[in-house]
Each structure stands twice: as structure tokens, then as C-alpha cells.
Amino acid sequence: MNDLSPSTLLVLVPLLPLVGAILTVALGRVLGQRAHLPTIAGIAAAFVVAVVLLMGMAREVGVGTTSPDHAAKPVEMVTTLWEWAAVGDAAATGDAGSAARSFSIPVALRLDPLTATLLVIITGVGLLVAIYSIGYMHNDPGYPRFFALVSAFVFSMSMLVMASNFLLVYVFWEAVGACSYLLIGFWFTKPEAAKAAKKAFLVNRIGDFGLAVATFLLWMTYGTLNFHDTTLADGTLVPGILGATRLADASAYVGGAVGTAICLLFLLAACGKSAQLPLHVWLPDAMEGPTPASSLIHAATMVTAGIYLVARTAPLFEACPGALTLVSIVGATTALVAALIGTVQNDLKRVLAYSTISQLGYMFASLGTGTLLGFTAAIFHLVTHAFFKALLFMGAGSVMHSMGGVIDMRRFGGLRRIMPITATTFLIGSLALAGVAPFAGFFSKDEILASLHSRGWPDAHGEHHEAAPTGGHAATAATFHLAFYVASVTPDAAQLAGGTRGSALDGLNTPATWRLLFWMSLVTAALTACYTFRAVFMTFTGPTRVPEEAGHHAHESPPSMTIPLVILAALSAVSGWWLFSTHSLASFLASTPSFTAPSVASTATPPAFHWDLAIQGTLAAAIGIVVAALGHLGRRSDGPQMERFLGPLETLFANRFFFDQIYSALIVKPLELIATLAALVDRHVIDGLVDAIARVPAGLGAVVRHLQSGLVQRYALAGVIGTLLIVLALVARAMG
Amino acid sequence: MNGFSPSSHLLLTIAAPLVGAVIAWLIGSRGVSAVRQSAAVTTLVTLALAAWLIVRYLADPATASGLPYGLVEFPWLTEGIFDVRFSLGLDGLSLWMFGLAALLSVTAVFVSWDAIKDRPVGFYVLLLVLEAAMLGVFAARDVILFYVFFEFTLVPLFFLIGIWGHDERRRAAVKFFIYTLTGSVLTFLGLLTIVLWHAAHANVVTFDIESLVDGTKIHPLPMTAAGGWLQMVVFLALLAGFAVKVPIVPLHTWLPLAHVEAPTGGSVDLAGVLLKLGIYGFLRFSMPMLPEATAVAAPWLFGLGVAGIVYGALVALVQTDLKRLIAYSSVSHMGYIVMGLFALTPVATEGANLQLVNHGLSSAGLFALVGMIYERFHTRNIASLGGIASKAPWLAVFFMLFTFSSIGLPGLNGFVGEFMILLGSFQRAWSGVSPAWQFAYLVMALLAVAGVVLGAWYMLWAVERAIFGGSREPPRTSGHGHDAGHGGHGGHGAAGTDHDRCDLRWYELCAVLPLAVFVFWIGLTPATFLAPAAPAVRKATAAPAAAFAARMQAETTATVARITTP
Fold it and tell me: Which residue of A522, A672, B38, B415 has the fewest CB atoms within a 10 Å radius of its CB?
């Protein structure tokens, strides 16, 4: 099979779901309740291709053959499909002012260990979700539309992680947002769903603002938007932002104010997409969408795009230690706040939504450590979280499906007797989420805690790598040019681009900060176990109670729904142990070009199991589970709850720290007021002024009305003759 | 068809709608159906001719170097110092606008299919005359011809609004007319001044645009106090007409009124093509002929563009009338184009030039769909609408598509221009202005990027209320039996359920589907559309960009000198 070269396979991964989406749209009416066929076929084929690519990439990296301390070599493959847009450089216009830089955007796809890993997760979970949806969405009038959107999402999401260009990343960053918008608003006749969809899109747009401006700054700073190195027609090499040339150079990344600005804008974008404080408010509302969509998009894949972005741009962040620290601060704070809110939610899906926010916060906390361990741990947790959170959401969906659409846990009880498969798999997912050994979450959470611990107590880890990577200098030709230019234009801006000075944020980067973050994460671990098992106990234990909406024979869900649950439960049970013990994921990811930058690679540590941290983490989980058990095990879920012990804090948590109210009062309402004022000014001041001026030649209106005889030709003739007369008169005068 | 020269091809394309207008007039007695069919055939033939002409244009290697294509020249007066010609031709600036005008004329006819029952002959004749004028104004290579066509776009639209408009049509038509006529008279006086200046120095009276561009390069209009700031005065005169057309805030108040009152077909042409004449005028006349004045005015117009973005978006946010909301969205989106144009960086100006087409497609599509919504539900009030997605799914799909295009969703056309405009403007703000301007420029660029959030806000708010929501029940027969009866008039073969009758009919699909094709096409391969226009845009903006750079350099030097000398 000669034509099945790796680059052809690479194109197939997004192409197959896209074809599936198009076929579903085109044949939707014909296929009816079989509309899932093109989607499932497309995603399944894409999954197979993604696995083949992953194995090929693993062979190339040499997972298991090289010793762990062997320095990882960057491995990547780039395929350019077509030139999306190009504008020649400014020099041609004689505009000497702007630095010569060409705007050239190829549609280029890439494959490297990070991308390969994520592709398997996206297509794999996507496939399971699609199969699950056959049962879940059965008889929904929008059946074909749902599958078309799922296909389109898998396409966009795979493109997002395959894009080898920041503009393309932005393109699919918004495209997944659009799929998410349409899926949240899937039941568009429900006003809450329509509203939640709009909210999700708008909050994400605020994040997209960050990504757009970051992209502009990158282009101005590095003169290109490509990740990879490219060669111009005349043979000159343009080093890509994350290309081999720049990665090999320890000081190729801009630090200082500009570098920090870029990183903070990336962080803003990531906060939007990954629902981190303060832009997390859309995700709980997004639960209005169909549960399989929540499972795929709002738990397993799309919301991890922010993690991907920060991981991908690791070398840029390394040049700005202050920004990195802020990533951890945002992450750990979000993890804690969301976990606190999660402990008092009564809607099962919302518990899971806050849990997702909290777990994503964990990943950010880990990324912010800036160590290789931190980056790989975040991706490790991303993978295990994709399994167990997709499982939990689908479990919640299974409950909802058989309970006639009810999702309020206070109306459930003892459901394990009615739906044993759902209950068992949900329990496995909960154990994984709570971080109980040997389930998946335990191992990934342990690595995250270890990465935070190593920054808080650097001596304890006995490593003498530089604790804080220092800011790079703008030394490449392109950036030098910019620095020179900016310096010549604005003396004050010299430091802006120079990067010789750190940013004010760097002061945050102290061991004390990291210790605090570590403790916050440990508390979060206890809270996670607590809210998870509170949900388990409320829903599946106690006296059997079924809401009347479920009808008379509430039952276990059909096999199309339970089989994905079982598969995910198996993965949630063993994947963590397997990936940890073989160290395969971490050593594989280490070959991702971004992680081979000296600033990242120099922080590599030998793989280790941290017994002390494992014990602390397990203790935390145990405390959480015991508290949940004391409050809820075996009791009626609508009875008095342990929340009453929280006192006024309960009001705070139950109202989600009043974020929505604060935003409404501080942003939405004032903007609406300004808009109303603007409309009044428009109508009465600006237009009124014009009307007043127009009234001066009072007769004009009458004249015009007179002309409205309907005889077009007369007016036309008059127009031409009149014009010509004016011209001739002027010309005659000009001739003297 | 070797004998079919590009020149006769171009001439035929412009003349075709006029021929069609005559035919429509002649068969007017045979009823609505015959007239609208003849109009549809005319616009389709014109579109085919235009498309074929564009294909021939792109195939000709000479056009890549910026040479005009399909040159038509008839001397009018070439004695003595006079060199006045009737001159037509296409170049990179006009190519896509020419095609867009032909495309949207088809849309304009099909959206009027069932809506216009009153005096159809006059309506379609005016629509076809308008098409000829729109095609002509972009092909004109001569100041006089340009002005004649320019005025000719005004007149049919005046009657279209005044006769076939809604309740306040007369006020809207008069306001539209006074605004644009006042502006265009000033523009014409400005253009004549350039002609006379050129005549005084080159000793030849020519109205040929290219000669004037070349001439003003050799003898630029004075930009000194001694010369009476003539260049600036002329620039402002041209600005008067172009700014009204665009419209640039605060000269925009005619636009929402005209749009709301205009029949759908008129709105489509107005939003899609006529607004672009202002920007086209800047590119064709102001920038190449008056580069120094453009450089002086650029920061202010850049700022007015940003003001338009934010202001238009804010006002759109509180509109209750769907058509009015989209009209204000046009104000906001035209603000992006103005901003990009006066950023004067290659990326921004080429993006702005492409955005002319993009906005033409999305706003025309949205206006067409609002017209269809009005036909069905007899209201445009957002609060009274709702649940359109369940009553007319395909209508909703297209509305979503054009909404996404309008808010710049990547993969669709709107994103390309918007992103390039913002990137290019950011480039200008970051490294292309003097220290005195830098802060202001950065703030303006960031405000414009923030405008993208506002843009999504008002459009998605409208979608939430009008398209989404409503009941989950299937459409009730009693609920819109009235509409079903209404649709029955033109419903050839529309037999089926009520559901089918409420959704798009074949002629409505003909109106929006071609636009949707281009929404995707431009979005996926913008290079195809950027490349042919690039040399012409470059040529038009090179002089003002250089003048602007020189000005900024001088200011920087002065600042540095002030700092270094105590």
C-alpha cells in the first residue's frame, strides 16, 4: 500500500469524520434513525488510523527501547495541504516603516507524540460517545443533526491538535466552540438551552480575544505563525515558533513584558476554553446540552484544548516564569473553588461539570510548574480524566435516560438495584476520580502532586536543575529587527522587546507560593473524593426511590449505552497503572518538539513513585470518602444533608461564589446601559442633528416629492444632461 | 469563441441587464409571473456572463501585473487639449465587486419573487437598471462615467425604497437621497478639481482615472499652507460622499432607516454592493491621487472606523427590530473595513478589500433571510419571533450560516478579512507609528478586537430569541394557516405538509444558496480571492502608505531630537 504514507494517514484522521458529517447531513432524512452509521463509520475509521499513527510514532520515538535518562529527540511530521492565504512582505510597498514580514498561512498538519496521543483520545472517546448516543438519542427528532454535529466536532478537534500554525489553531479553536455552541443549544426550543449556548460562545469569545491578540503579538515578535520551520522559494529558512531551529537555541524565546503578555493572553484563551477562573461560568450551564455531548466535549476533549495550548507553547512559557507561576495559581485556585462548589450541587450533571472544572484546574496547576514532569503529568491526567470523566458523564446520562430525564439527585435512591451496570461502572469512575489506588486517577494525580511538590521543596527532591528557568533574550534575526525598530521608535519600549528584564509577575515564583499551591491541591483532592462519593451515595445507595417521570418500569439502559460504559470503566481501572508502570506515556511525550526545548528538557527527572505523596493523596481521598459516607451513605437523599453544617458558606457555595451575579452587575448590565444610551444618542442627537440640517433647504423635500412621478426615464435623462452641462461648463471655465 | 473579445464581453455584461429591463417592460402586460421570470433570466444570464468574464480575466497572465482587462474605449472629445473618453475595464480592485454585483442581483430578484405584487414591472425594471449601474460603476475607468453610474445607482434605489418600501418609506427615501446626493455632489466637485489641477499642469483635459493617478504623482496637489492645503480640501470633499456611502459614523443614520424601510431586494443591493462604493472610492481615487492628505487623515479615519465598530455594535445590541439590528451590524462591520483600509499595511488593506466582498455576502444573505422571515410571520420584532428553527429548519440553517459568517467564525469568509484587518492594524499599532500615536493606536486596535466579542453578542442574542426558543411541539396548523395560505400564491409544487410550506421555497433557496457557496469557498481558500486583487490594492495604497511612513518617521525623529537636546 504505497499511497498510505504517514502523511496520507495524517490527512485521513480529520477527513474521515468530516466525510461522516457531510454524509450525515446529506442523507439525514433518508437514513432517519440510522443516521448514526456514517458518523460511527467515519470516527471508527479515524480511530483506527489514529492508533496506527500512534504506534508508528511510538516506534519512531523508541518507547521502551531507549533508557529514560537518554535525552529525548524531537520527533515531528508536517504535511502542508494548501496555502490558505498569503500577503507578500511590506518592503514591496515602500513602506519602510513596518518591519519586513510576510503573512503566509499554509494549511499544515502535524504529527508528534503529543498530537498522536490526543488524536487517539479524541477519536476513541468520540467513537464510544457516538455508540452510546445510538441508545441515548433514540427517537429524538434531531437524531441526524446530533450525529452530524458530533462528527463535525471530532473533525474540528482533531484539526485543532494537528494544526501546525497558530492561525489554524485559532481557526479550530473557534470551530470547536461553534460545535459546542450548536450542541449545547441542541434542544433549541428550551430557552435555557438557547441561553446557555449563547453564554458559552460569548465567554469563549473573551478567551478567543486573548488568543487573537497573542497571535498578533507572535507574528510581530517572531515574524511567522508556523510551528515548524519552513523554507522560502529562494531557499532561506524561516524558523518556526516551535520549529527545530528555534527549539535548539536556548535563548530564542522572548521573555520580559512582551513574552509575558503573550503567555498571559494564551492563559486567557485557555481559561475560556478550559473553563478556568474567572471564565468558568459557561461550563455548568453547558449541561443543558445532550449528555453524550457533555461527555465528549465538556469533559473529555474540547475543554482540554487549553491544556493542549499551554503544553504546546511550553518553551514560550518557560521564558516567562512569572506567567508560568500564574498558570499554576489560576489552576490550583480553580480546582479548589470548583471543588467547593461541587460539594453542594444537587444536579448530578452539575456536580460532574464542577468536577471537570476542578480537574482541569489540576492540570493547569501541573503545567505551571514548568518542569517536564509537570507537563507530562498534565497530559497523563488529561488522558485518564478523559476516560473516567467521560465514563461518569455517560453514567449520569444512563441514569437520566432511565429516570425520564430527571437529574436531581435528591429524587434518586438505591438505583444500584435497578441499574447494576451503570452503578458499578459509575463507582469505578468515581474511584478513579477520587484518586483511589490502583485506579487511573490515583497515578496521574500523584504525578501532579509530585510536580508541585518538587517546586515547593526543591531540596527534598535532590535535584539541582535550575529551579526557575530564566527569561530568554531576543536574539534571532527577526526579533532583533523588531527590538531594534521598536527601540528606534519608542525609547521606552526598548525593554518591551528586549526581554532582559523580568516581568513583575516573576515575584510570585517563590517556594512559598508553590507550597501553598501544593496544599491547596491536597485539600482539593479530599474535596474531590467527598463530592464524588456524595453523588454516588445519594444516587445509588439508600432506599430505592425512582422519580415518577421514569414511569413504572425503570430499567437498565440498552447495550449500546452500557458497552461504552464497561469499556471506559476498564480503561479507568487499568490505564493509570499501565501507563505509569511502563513509563511509556511520559517517555513518549518527552519527544514532543515543544518538550525538547532546553528549558523544558533540562528539568527532566528520572521516573519515580513518590510514596510520601501517594500516602498523603490517599489519606486525603479517604477523608473525603468518609465524610461523604457519614453524610449520605444509606440515607434518603432528600433528607437533611451535611451541608447544613457549612452555615453561611453553604449560601456562598450554592450560589457558585456569586460569579454570575457579579458579572451581570459589573459587565453585562453596564454594557447594556451604555448600549441603550448609545441608541438614544443615535436616534435623538445624531439623527436629530441631521434632520435639522436637512430642514434648512425647506423646499428640497417638496421638490423631491414632485419628482416622484414614477417616470424613471425622465429623471435619468435629466440626470445625464444635467451632469454633462455641469462638466462642460466647468471645462469651459477651466479653458478660460 | 475567439472573436468574442474581452472588451465586447464586458460591454455585453453591463448592457445585458438594460436589455433585460426593456424586455421586462415590453412583456409587462403579461403579468407578474412573466416579468419576474424575465428578470430572473436576465440576472442569471448576466451572472453567467460576469462569471465567464472573471474566469477569462484570471486566465489572462497580463492581469497579474495589474493591467486592466477588457478595455473599452470610445473617444468622445479628443480635439486640442481635450482627451475625454468613454472608458471601461476591469482590474484587481473592481473584479470581485463586479462579480458580487452580478451575484447579488440574482438574489435581489429571487427574494422579491413573491414579495412584490404591486406594480411589478416598474420594480423589476428598476432592479435591472440598478444592476447595470452597479456593474458599470465598478468597470468605469473614467471620472465622468464613474459619476454617471454612481448617480444611477442612487436613482433606482430611491424609487425602490420610496415606492415599494414599508410604512415610513417616503421619509427613508428622502433621507437616503439627500444624504447621498449632498455627499456625491461634493465628491464630484472634488474630482473635478483634480481634473482641473491636472489640466492646468499637464495641459490636457482628461477624465481618465489612470492618467489622473499618474499625473498627480508628477504634480501632486499642494499640501502646504501656500497652496491652500488644496490636497486636504479635495480629500475632504471626496470624503463627504464616500463617508456617507460607507457609512462612517456619525454619517450613518440614513442607513438603518433606509434598510428597514426598503423592500428586501433593495436592502440586498444596498448592503451588499452600494455601501462598498465608498470604500471603492477611497481605493480608486483618494488614496492614489491624494496620498499625503490620506496619510494625514489616516489616524482619524482609523479611529472613526474603530468608533463605528464599537458604536454600531452597541446600538445593535439594544435593537428590537431584526432588520434594524442587522443594519447596525453593517455599520459595525463597515467600521472594520474603514479601519483596515486606513491602517495602511498590506495585510490590513488586502484584508479590507476582501472584506468588502465578505460583508456583501453575509449582510445580503441576512437581509434576504429577514425578508423571508417577514413574509412568513409578518413581523420583524425579535420579541414576537421565536422558534423559527422548528418551523422552518432550512431557513434557520442559512440564518445560522450567515450569522456565523458575519461574526467571523473561522472556516467561513468573514473570518479571513476580519483577522487580516485586525492583524494588519495591530502591526501598524505595534511598529508602524510614532511614539506620540502608539498608545492611541494600540488602544484602538485592542478595542477593535474586543468588538469581535460584542459582534457575537448581538448576533447570537438575536439568534437565541428569533431562531431558537419557542415550543418543542411540531408546527401547529392553526398557528400559521394564514402563512400557508399566503405562500400558496407562488407555491408551484409546494404541495406537502405545512412544515414544508413554511420552510424555504425553491426561489428562496436560489436566492441564498449561491451566497452560501461563496461563504465557504472564500473561507476555505481565501488565497484564490486575495491574489488577483493584491497587485491593484498594493498599487492603490503604496503612495499613502509611504507618505504615512515618512510622516511617522519625521515625527519620531522630531521626538528623538526633542528628548536628546535638553
Answer: A672
Alpha carbon distance A567, A66 (integer Å): 31
User: B152 contacts in A (CB within 8 Å)?
Assistant: 716, 719
- Whether B177 sits inside 8 A of A704 (CB atoms) is yes
Q: Quick: pLDDT tens for A566-601.
A: 999 999 988 888 888 877 888 888 888 888 887 887
CA distance B146 to chain A (A): 12
* Contact flag A202-B456 (C-beta cutoff 8 Å): yes
Burial class (CB in 10 A: 0-12, 13-18, 19+), A503: buried
For B29-41, what is each residue's pLDDT tens digit?
Answer: 888 888 888 999 9
Q: Tell me how many residue pairs between chain A and chain B have CB atoms under 8 A apart.
A: 246
Beta carbons of A539 and A425 less than 8 angstroms apart: no
- For A723-736, write each residue's pLDDT tens digit: 666 656 655 555 54
Question: With contacts defined as CB-CB under 8 Å, which chain B residues touch A215?
Answer: 423
C-beta separation of B442 from B425 below 8 A: no
- Specify the 3-state DSSP secondary structure of A71: coil
- Asked if A175 and A51 count as a contact pair (C-beta separation under 8 A), the reply is no
Could you say which of B430, B456, B542 has the minimum Cβ distance to residue A93? B542
| CA–CA separation, A325 and A450 (whole Å) | 16
Helices then strands, counting H and E runs in chain A, come out as: 30, 4
Q: Are A81 and A599 in contact (CB under 8 A)?
A: no
pLDDT at A62 > cutoff 80: no
Which residues in chain B have their CB less than 8 angstroms from residue A730's CB?
Answer: 192, 196
Torsion sign across C-alpha atoms A717, A721, A724, A726: negative
Q: How far is B152 from chain A (nearest CA, A)?
A: 8
Q: Under 8 Å CB-to-CB from A47, ≥6 apart: which residues? A: A120, A123, A124, A126, A127
A113, pLDDT greater than 60: yes
- Report the pLDDT averaged over residues A319-345: 90
Is the pLDDT confidence value at A479 over 80? no
Question: Tens of pLDDT along A484-517?
Answer: 344 444 434 434 444 445 567 777 778 888 889 9
> A651: how many CB neighbours lie within 10 A of its CB?
11
CB atoms B199 and A198 under 8 Å: no
CB A64 within 8 A of CB B397: no
Confidence of residue A91 (pLDDT cuts 50, 70, 90): very low
pLDDT band at A483 (very low <50, low <70, confident <90, very high): very low
**Strands, E assignment, B154-285:** 205-206
Smallest Cα distance from B488 to chain A, Å = 25
Measured distance CA(B511)–CA(B104) in Å, rounded: 8
Asked whether the beta carbons of A361 and A382 are under 8 A apart, the reply is no
Mapped onto helix, strand or coil, the DSSP state of residue B262 is coil
> Average pLDDT over chain A, rounded to whole?
81
Q: Distance between CA atoms of B216 and A293, rounded to whole angstroms?
A: 62
Residues A128-141 pLDDT 10s: 999 999 988 888 88
Asked if the Cβ–Cβ distance from B432 to A98 is below 8 Å, we say yes
- Cα angle vertex B511, ends B507, B515, to 5°? 150
Which residue among B192, B527, B534 places its CB closest to the CB of A84?
Answer: B527
* The predicted structure's pLDDT at residue A70: 56
Considering only the beta carbons, identify the residue of B122, B416, B431 that sits closest to A99.
B431
Residue A671 to residue B314, Cβ atoms within 8 A: yes
Q: Among B456, B526, B553, whose Cβ lies nearest the Cβ of A97?
A: B553
pLDDT digits (tens, 9 = 90+) for A598-636: 788 777 777 777 788 888 888 898 999 988 888 878 777
**Which residues of A are less than 8 Å from B148 in CB distance?**
719-720, 723
